[in-house]
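[step 3/7] inverse_fold.run input=structure_tokens len=114
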């Protein structure tokens, strides 16, 4: 499939009215780095209850559902579910052990780089 123009659309709000603006770009002016095919998915979750505990639980279950289905994590700034993020085994050690691990791994990196 070949196309000659790229159509970009955006909604603009002017006062109380909403207007659709269209920008038409010749395909020769589009960057070669952009993919020819692009797909984006937007998933919205609605909750009838407004209780904060229920909203937090629904948010955590949604994040877990996204992880189970191999979707990217939600981009919303309000989504925080640290208990769903797997921890590294080294994070459970004492601070002293972590400091010694950091130093030894830092030396290994320098040796490998140079």
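[step 3/7] decode complete -> sequence:
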């Amino acid at each position: 499939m070949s196309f000659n123009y790229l159509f970009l659309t955006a909604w603009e709000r002017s006062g109380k009215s909403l207007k659709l603006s269209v920008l038409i770009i010749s395909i020769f002016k589009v960057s070669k780095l952009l993919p020819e095919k692009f797909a984006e998915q937007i998933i919205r979750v609605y909750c009838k209850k407004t209780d904060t505990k229920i909203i937090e639980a629904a948010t955590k279950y949604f994040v877990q559902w996204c992880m189970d289905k191999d979707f990217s994590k939600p981009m919303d700034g309000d989504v925080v579910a640290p208990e769903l993020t797997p921890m590294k085994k080294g994070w459970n050690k004492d601070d002293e052990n972590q400091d010694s691990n950091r130093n030894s791994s830092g030396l290994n990196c320098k040796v490998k780089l140079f």
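[step 4/7] annotate
Confidence is low (pLDDT under 50) at residues 105-114.
Residues 9-28+40-91 form one domain.
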